[in-house]
């Protein structure tokens, strides 16, 4: 069951890394673009579809977390996968654990103090985050990691389906919502190109 192709790995191994996006400054408005009523409607539909998809994915993530928390065997598989990812990321002296902690510390500092980071801090943070994400992407291309991740994902999904018989319907909903989001994105891009 190749449904999430790495998303489960990211969610379990790097849950705290998702916080790094919170430290990003808001994108500056690049001039006000004039968009048609059709484009506005597509944007609204796309946002609504994305929000519905996120809610469904979060429900499934809760189910996944619960079965992992309740299974020593799944925890061992997760830990082995984390160790392999860390090992593969830490080539040529890179310390992914230390870097993830440092990025988290930067976020924590500015969230708790209410202080705004300087442009230099933001740029350094973004550069470090890009390097971290590039190493993640490289590791996900590794056949050994892919194999371990697929086995782990299959085990988790099998446990989810056993514990939550309605999860099959949720998975089908997620697939349909993903297709809808993709279709709306294509329609929006076509509408923007035809502007």
Describe this structure in words.
With 195 residues, the protein is mainly alpha-helical. It has one domain (37-193). The protein is 75% helix and 0% strand. The chain is built from seven helices and no strands. The protein has helices at residues 7-13, 37-69, 72-89, 96-113, 119-140, 143-163, 167-193. The longest helix has 33 residues, at 37-69. Residues 1-31 have low confidence and may be disordered.
Please describe the structure with a list of short key phrases separated by commas or semicolons.
7 helices, single chain, 75% helix, signal, 0% strand, disordered N terminus, mainly alpha, LTXXQ motif family protein, coiled coil, 195 residues
Structural class label: mainly alpha
Largest sheet: none
Total helices: the number is 7
What proportion of the residues form beta strands (DSSP E)? under 5%
Which residue ranges are poorly predicted, with pLDDT under 50 across at least 5 consecutive positions? 1-31
User: How helical, in percent, are the residues?
Assistant: over 70%
Question: What is the CA–CA distance across the termini?
Answer: 40 Å
The helix-strand sequence is: HHHHHHH
Organism: Thiomicrorhabdus xiamenensis
Protein name: LTXXQ motif family protein
Coiled coil: 39-66
Keywords: Coiled coil, Signal
């Amino acid at each position: 069951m190749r449904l999430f192709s790495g998303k489960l790995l990211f969610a379990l191994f790097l849950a705290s890394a998702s916080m790094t996006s919170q430290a990003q400054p808001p994108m500056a408005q690049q001039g006000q673009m004039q968009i048609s009523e059709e484009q506005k409607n597509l944007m609204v539909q796309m946002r609504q579809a994305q929000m519905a998809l996120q809610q469904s994915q979060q429900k499934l993530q809760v189910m996944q977390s619960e079965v992992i928390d309740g299974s020593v065997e799944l925890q061992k598989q997760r830990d082995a996968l984390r160790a392999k990812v860390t090992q593969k990321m830490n080539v040529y002296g890179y310390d992914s654990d230390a870097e993830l902690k440092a990025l988290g510390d930067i976020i924590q500092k500015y969230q708790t103090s209410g202080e705004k980071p300087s442009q230099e801090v933001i740029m350094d943070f973004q550069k470090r985050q890009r390097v971290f994400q590039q190493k993640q992407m490289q590791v996900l291309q590794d056949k050994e990691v892919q194999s371990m991740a697929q086995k782990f994902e299959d085990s988790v999904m099998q446990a989810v389906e056993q514990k939550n018989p309605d999860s099959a319907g949720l998975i089908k909903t997620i697939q349909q919502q993903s297709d809808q989001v993709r279709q709306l994105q294509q329609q929006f891009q076509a509408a923007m190109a035809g502007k």
